[in-house]
Amino acid sequence: MPPHDSAKFVDAATQPETRGIELIGAGERHGRARDLFFVWAAPSVSILNFTIGATLVLLGLELWQAVLVVLAASALWVFPGVIAISGPAAGTSGSVITRAIYGIIGNKPVVAFTGWLIGAVFLALTWLASSFLGADLLAGMGLTDPVVVPIAVTLVISVLTVIVAVYGHALILRVYSWLAIVLAVIFVTVTAFILPQVDWSYHPAEPLTGVPLWSAVTIGFTIIASAPISYINSPDIARYLPRSTKPSHIIAATALGGALPGIVFTVVGALLATAISAEAMHAGIESALLGLLPDWLGPVLVIGVVVNTIALNGMTTYTSSMALQAIGLSIRRIPAAIVVGLIGTALTIYLVLSTSFLDAVNLMLQFLVIVSAPTMAVFVADVVLRRNRYDGVELFDEGRGGRFWYSGGWGIPGMAAVVLGGIATALCLSTEVWTGPIAEGLGYVDLSVPVGMLVSALVYAVLLRTRLGAHAGGITPPLAPPAG
Predict the structure, then answer these.
(1) Cβ atoms within 10 Å of 210's Cβ, excluding its own
(2) Distance between CA atoms of 454 and 81, rounded to whole angstroms?
(3) What's the CA angle centered on 149, arms 146 and 154, to 5 degrees?
(4) For a Cys-Cys bond, which of 9, 119, 443, 484 suits 211, CB 3.0-4.6 Å?
């Protein structure tokens, strides 16, 4: 596909966006960095935050400990902000930009695996929340079929999500600011009814100390951190910004937009856990939450969850459709978005029929870091080491003589860093299904995220200085003038 053809693509909220990974010319750039704040805030006002916050208390943490964990893990939102600046620099999606890391051929399996796995997991998790809540709401109206109702809710929400993805960037930019405000009002109202029921003097029956305490702290950290480090698609949302946009503004808008709502409502989730029994939370935190609210507010919350789901998954489906193009499939962006939506719907229906919401969230978010921690770390390292110098035209040169052909099409430093970082992450991971030997040896302390990211970044930086890095073209020669 040609790098760009400005006559074919129009970025307007009133019509489907046909542009995919094609380059965005200077004359088509528009927008301000601060617009990104609301783009990331709308998906972050989520019932998943309530669930994750409650999990911290279920792990045995005291409230003040849970708050510190939330703040520490939320600081990782700076990483999606850092990689977002590569979008305006290159003028294309992140799934193309990473050719500079993994090579023309090597980038394809990495994007296919990370794009599909991360996209499918988040599509399924948030659709799952809406399915359970929507089914609870409809049960009050007499629709109680435990199979048909959740599946019907999932199908309706998935169709609306795909519509958002089809209309794409301009619609997301225009609508998400309003969605963020509406969602904030709904969740703040829900919070106002939760707070009077909070046990402010709450203490675990058996306060954790020593290794068990660090185990609970690190597992909680991993669950929360899995969200920000998974947003490797942030360059896709920022790529329309003028190249002259200050990188610091892009980083701040992206990081704060994602972090602030997450911090607030994850802490509320921890407080919520003191008002609900552990048995009720395991049976279904969404049902227990509705039981704390007045009758009129329950349906409003369900609507808010559905809106948040569409906001998050619309953006995920949008960016995942470009990942399909980046791996070399001859498919336009709109059909690709439909394919992504179908896969996410199928996974959601499977989860609806086979698991509880709380179990699905905790397990899938923890396993997600095996993929997301190393890929995010390497991307951040590349942006920093390259000083955000990316040439979009050269990124589309897929020939053997191209700059990013590297070693037979493979960027060995990037591939090695991701594989070794993934292994390190898995060795340090602690879940109910899998506990790595390092985590087990430390008493189930989960250091998967910091260790996995550190190993990946260090391996990448070191290998670039070896013959492998030199054979891959290195990173020191400038690819383009510095952005901004």
Answers:
(1) 8
(2) 18
(3) 120
(4) 443
pTM score of the predicted model: 0.89
Tens-digit pLDDT profile for residues 147-199: 788 788 888 888 998 999 999 999 999 999 999 999 999 999 999 999 999 99
CA–CA dist 411, 183 (Å, integer): 42
pLDDT tens digit sequence for 93-118: 999 999 999 999 999 999 988 876 66
Which amino acid, one-letter code, is at 306?
V
Burial class (CB in 10 A: 0-12, 13-18, 19+), 6: middle
Homologous superfamily in CATH for domain 31-365: Hydantoin permease (1.10.4160.10)
Helix 169-194, helix 247-273: angle, nearest 10: 30
Element (H, E) at 390: none
Among the listed residues 420, 429, 408, 428, the one whose alpha carbon sits nearest the alpha carbon of residue 473:
408
Q: How far is CA 167 from CA 10, 44, 96, 112, in A?
A: 11, 21, 21, 23
Collapsed DSSP state (helix, strand, coil) of residue 332: coil
Place of tokens 């003191």: 274
Residue with tokens 């699905």: 360
- With tokens 């953006």, the residue in question is 315
